[in-house]
Amino acid sequence: MPTMKEKKIKINQLAKELSVSIQTIKNYEDKGILPKAKRDSKHWRYYTYEDLIKIKALFGDEIKKG
After folding, report:
1. Residues 6+ away with beta carbon under 8 Å from 12
2. What is the DSSP string of 11-58?
């Protein structure tokens, strides 16, 4: 069973946690503002809990302003 740090967070879950749209996350990835998401065997984007913590630490409330 994966630990909290290893748990996969889907892009929609990340968007909800950051209070932004999925498209905003994709746009930020394309612009290099956010690191590219990891991909699973079905090529679905996912992030880890550590990714979420890093993103929140980097941007805090600024990510909501886009």
Report:
1. 22
2. HHHHHHHHTS-HHHHHHHHHHTSSPPPEE-TT--EEEEHHHHHHHHHH
pTM: 0.75
Residue with tokens 């630990």: 3
At 7-57, the pLDDT tens digits run 899 999 999 988 889 999 999 899 998 888 999 999 999 999 988 888 888
* Distance between CA atoms of residues 31 and 3, nearest Å: 31
Ordered structural domains, the chain, with CATH: 4-65 (1.10.1660.10)
Residue 61 pLDDT more than 80? Answer: no
Residue that has been written with the tokens 């930020």 in this structure: 28
